[in-house]
Amino acid sequence: MAAAPILARRIARSGVLPLCCRPPSWDRAPRQPPGLPLAPCRAFSNNKIQVELDESSGVAMMKFKSPPVNSLSLDFLTEFSISLEKLENDRACRGVIITSTIPKIFSSGLDIMEMCGKNVEHYGEFWRAVQEMWLRLYGSNMVTVAAVNGSSPAGGCLIALSCDYRIMAENPKFSIGLNEAQLGIVAPFWFKDTFVNVVGHRIAERSLQLGSLHPAPEALKLGLVDELVPEEKLLEKASAVMARWLALPDHARQLTKSMMRKAVLDHLVAHREEDIKNFINFISKESIQKSLRMYMEMLKKKKS
Ligand SMILES: CC/C=C\C/C=C\C/C=C\C=C\CC(=O)SCCNC(=O)CCNC(=O)[C@H](O)C(C)(C)COP(=O)(O)OP(=O)(O)OC[C@H]1O[C@@H](n2cnc3c(N)ncnc32)[C@H](O)[C@@H]1OP(=O)(O)O
Predict the structure, then answer these.
(1) Contact of 58 with 93, CB cutoff 8 Å
(2) Which residue among 53, 135, 213, 293 has the highest number of C-beta atoms inside a 10 angstrom radius?
(3) pLDDT at 228 over 90
(4) Domains of the chain, start order
């Protein structure tokens, strides 16, 4: 995936500072008092995502911190891809736990405002960033564990589905699923394939057609998440799961993961430009724009 030049152009246009141009990122970990041994921890943080790598375990903790709801805007997606790329290229990093700093929300999915009332160039750029994020996460060599500590609709669910293991807080008020149909839009084939690979064809077909958001206990029954734990135990459990996965030799686990995911990844790589065109045609339709506007209005009314 030769994404670097594309990312660089996008960052330049979006105004988000690339990590490589910021003050040396690995220096931003808290300084140790003199005399104490250095903690084997490196941290970097950008506007919307914070990452801390524990070098002794090889595990990075990635926390989404984009209020109010961690929606996946173009800037967020760019930062996410850059963070994943940095960790992927860091020999000290073998696994990443993904979670959120926002109470009750893991991620609200793609930022609907990025898909409303914009021009064709913007839609193309946005969709390429969505693809890139997924290609990096689903195709990652690292062990990826989602610690889902809040609601996780649509694109948020895709992030969790793209990880190797999903642990969710056992709060029945938190829900997860690919609810695109409820917005009057269609989950693209690679969202669908990722979903099918986790829950199987029948459950995916029913859930996608109904645009279902499954409360945590139901998500567990369907196999959409692997386990539920009390919220306060989520990160501890994620670390324990990570340690179990990291006990295996990397090369064997990585080759197995790649064997399981290759067909789905290759499908998008082979049809990337066509997929972007389809998205642009679809999202530019007046009827789809109207559905999205109505959905946003409904969200706002729900508040008042
Ligand atoms: C043929 C096919 C070819 C190609 C493919 C074509 C199309 C595929 C296209 C797109 C695929 C999209 C996938 C997606 O991810 S779409 C996004 C789906 N997301 C949702 O439905 C989530 C909606 N949000 C909620 O349900 C809730 O906000 C919540 C549960 C996440 C949080 O609830 P709260 O009560 O805590 O907070 P709210 O008051 O509702 O929200 C706060 C604030 O945030 C705004 N907001 C919420 N979600 C989004 C979002 N996804 N994007 C942008 N903005 C969002 C919300 O409006 C509030 O704003 P204000 O404070 O009122 O300004």
Answers:
(1) yes
(2) 53
(3) yes
(4) 11-16+41-303 (3.90.226.10)
What pLDDT digit, counting tens, does each position of 172-225 carry? Answer: 999 999 999 999 999 999 999 999 999 999 999 999 999 999 999 999 999 999
Residue 197: exposure state from Cβ atoms within 10 A (0-12, 13-18, ≥19): middle
Phi, psi of 273, deg, nearest 5: -65, -40
Alpha-carbon gap, residue 86 to 83, rounded angstroms: 5
Rounded CA separation 70/231 (Å): 18
Between the alpha carbon of residue 277 and those of residues 113, 187, 204, 288, 301, the distances in Å are 19, 15, 25, 15, 33
What's the token pair of residue 101?
């700093």
Pocket of ligand 1 (CB under 6 A): 68-69, 71, 105, 108-113, 151, 153-155, 179-180, 183, 185-186, 188, 278-279, 282-283, 296, 299-300, 303
180 included as an active-site residue: yes
Task: For the chain, state the CA radius of gyration.
Answer: 19
